[in-house]
Amino acid sequence: MTRTSRWTLVILVVVLLAAGGTWLWSASRSPAAPTPSSPAPAPSPTPPVPALEVTLRRVKAVPVRGEVKARKLRAPAEAVRQTFTELYTTAFVDPNGWAGGAFPGIFDHFAPAAREEARRHLDDLTLGRAAEHVSAVRPEWARLDVRFLVGPARVPVAAQVSMRFAATAVAGDGTEVPVRHRGEYVLERLEGRWLVMAYEVDGGFGPEALP
To answer: How confident is the model at residue 169, as a pLDDT?
Structure first.
């Protein structure tokens, strides 16, 4: 599965302000002791990255045979929730992970066979090119539904995940724009980790973005 539509980029203009300074000096006929210069102001601290809280709403099991007790799904469901917390934090919330629109950290959450496909759809899986114009993203809510395929050994072997995400993007000039993203993902457990094998995603900016 691949994405069905491209991101609609609404952030078009970022105003860059350059401030100039004037050096002030004075002199007299008699030598004067040099005036100690004022210490340079300390750089502003980097604002903390807001924490993304992903709510796990529904967890279901589709067993190959028999029944699966709910407690058997708690640990894998939490592992999947953590995977999407990290994925969406890098893709949307944490500017340190954007790398000018390259988003290198998200590929660790995709299976090796799916990484090249993910690179082709990077604009759809992340902020994409809009990251160049956005200074911060405040998450509003994130909701996750998980349905596991449980194998004969009563162990989840695959997962179908529905993710819904809402946030506010702040442009360099202070303009705030709604962000919405939704995705359907298929994951498999490979070498002890839940990795994305396939996906269908959609999202956008502005008042006309997804609900």
So the answer is: 95
